[in-house]
Design brief:
Elements: H1 2-52, H2 61-80, H3 86-106, H4 111-139, H5 142-170, H6 189-195, H7 208-226, H8 230-249, H9 257-260, H10 263-275, H11 282-293, H12 298-326, H13 328-348, H14 354-382, H15 388-414, H16 431-460
Helix pairs in contact: 1-2, 1-4, 1-5, 1-6, 2-4, 2-7, 2-15, 3-4, 3-6, 4-5, 4-15, 5-12, 5-14, 7-8, 7-15, 10-14, 10-15, 10-16, 11-12, 12-13, 12-14, 13-14, 13-16
């Protein structure tokens, strides 16, 4: 009798968490959108900001340092969602987003205050995104999860489109007003308080040492690819060895031995790494093409990129429906094929007009967007429910680290004159050849993603292990 009562109580709790989650997700999405659009807006205008503050040489720090913070907190927040109440975490994030916005606006005359404000904003805005993903994984059914993962991805690209458009628009007035946009999140505190589940793992010790050590490793990786130095590789190797020893010998590490030896999960991470390798390079390569090949203004480029991200938003909205209809594997194959077509087509038609390249960029970004839902849905199929937060956190870290490495590769190749010394027919040597060759490299990366899916598709389709 008591077992029946306990089972009914558990089912009632699960149903209540599911209902609360579905009510909380719109507010979480809106907060995530407000934080993420700032990333793309400042990625577009950071040079303008640096120039206006007399710090042109250091302007890139407005973009790179928040990017480093993002890579670390993605892992940190996802992991903490396995232990700490989603409601408390979200309120912390909104508070940081508001503090960063006010600091940036009132400290806009000081370059370093602007950099610090952007780091705080980035850290605050990401909390809602991490909580959204973990709640969707833990509390929603398979079909609901696929739908909301698609919506989440759509919101990411919608925020990119809004951010690019807002960056181009507000910069023509006064860039400091960009900092005030996220203050809208104040209006979303009531629904967060009302609907976000106040659940947590009572009595379970948070592995502070292990999480801090892993965050330090993540930070070093992000810093290295933004500011490379040989000595960092040595420090990174030592930290990784210490962490490996801790996982194997520690009493209760937050990443168990079974977690790090989960071949199916690692296969999904590998695919995620390759699919998103050139995600951050999409914007700057079209800025270069627009400016140096077609001679069009930044506002025109931002308009075309806004269209590209609107396409990505629409694909994201439909990706959950598409995955439920065709399954993970066919969707990943289609994603890789679209990326190959978009990148290779851009290389072949580089001089056919900027609007043609805009269409091909839409094809490429549609491929990246479409891969998100099946890849993240695979996390729930390869990990126990109580490890979903850690799985998503490390997945977010992998995605951002991959894109950061890809950005470093992109920057290195585009800065090397030798990369443009050879060109195919119809493309001149120099900047045209550099852009075309870069697109061929992006197409090869997409082909590698397709090969990885073909090799590891069985592992990606495995059922979640039970504890």
């Amino acid at each position: 009798m008591s077992e029946t009562i306990t089972t009914k109580a558990t089912e009632a709790t699960v149903d209540e968490n599911r209902r609360s989650t579905k009510r909380a997700l719109p507010a979480l999405l809106a907060i995530f959108l407000l934080g993420t659009l700032m990333i793309q807006a400042f990625n577009l205008v950071f040079q303008n900001v640096g120039d206006s503050l007399g710090m042109s040489a250091n302007a890139s720090l407005i973009s790179t340092l928040p990017g480093i913070v993002l890579g670390v907190v993605c892992m940190l927040y996802g992991t903490l969602c396995d232990y700490i109440s989603p409601r408390k975490m979200t309120l912390f994030g909104v508070g940081a987003l508001i503090v960063g916005s006010l600091l940036g606006f009132f400290g806009a005359s000081n370059f370093w205050a602007v950099v610090l404000a952007r780091m705080i904003q980035t850290a605050g805005g990401q909390v809602a995104g991490s909580v959204f993903l973990v709640m969707a994984m833990k509390y929603l059914s398979d079909k609901e999860r696929a739908f909301y993962l698609g919506i989440f991805n759509a919101v990411y690209y919608a925020s990119s489109a809004i951010g690019i458009f807002a960056g181009g628009l507000i910069t023509s007035i006064d860039w400091r007003y960009l900092f005030l946009v996220p203050l809208v999140s104040i209006l979303l505190i009531p629904p967060v308080l009302k609907y976000t589940p106040d659940t947590g793992v009572r009595g379970e010790r948070i592995d502070v040492f292990g999480i801090a050590l892993f965050a330090l490793i993540a930070g070093f990786v992000a810093v290295y690819f933004s500011f490379p130095a040989t000595w960092m590789l040595g420090v990174l190797a030592v930290l990784i060895l210490i962490f490996a020893g801790y996982v194997w010998k520690g009493a209760n590490p937050f990443l168990s031995r079974g977690f790090v030896t989960n071949g199916a999960y690692m296969a999904v991470l590998l695919a995620l790494f390759v699919f998103y390798f050139f995600n951050f390079a999409c914007v700057p390569i079209y800025n270069v093409i627009g400016d140096r090949i077609y001679g069009i203004s930044l506002s025109q480029v931002s308009l075309c990129l806004t269209i590209v991200y609107i396409v990505a938003t629409l694909v994201g909205c439909l990706s959950g429906v598409i995955m439920n209809a065709m399954g993970r594997l066919p969707m990943l194959i289609l994603s890789a094929l679209l990326m190959i077509a978009g990148a290779a087509g851009s290389a072949l038609m580089l001089t056919s007009g900027f609007w043609v390249l805009t269409v091909l960029a839409s094809v490429f970004i549609a491929g990246i967007t479409m891969s998100y839902t099946p890849l993240y849905d695979s996390f729930s199929a390869t990990l126990p429910v109580d490890q979903n937060g850690r799985g998503i956190g490390i997945g977010d870290l992998m995605m951002n680290t991959s894109a950061s490495i890809g950005m470093a590769v992109y920057s290195g190749l585009m800065a090397n004159p030798q990369f443009g010394s050879h060109a195919l027919a119809g493309v001149k040597t120099g900047i045209q050849a550099q852009a075309a060759n870069m697109f061929w490299v992006m197409a090869l990366a997409a082909l590698l993603a397709l090969i990885i899916v073909a090799i590891f598709h069985k592992a990606m389709s495995a059922n979640a292990p039970q504890e």
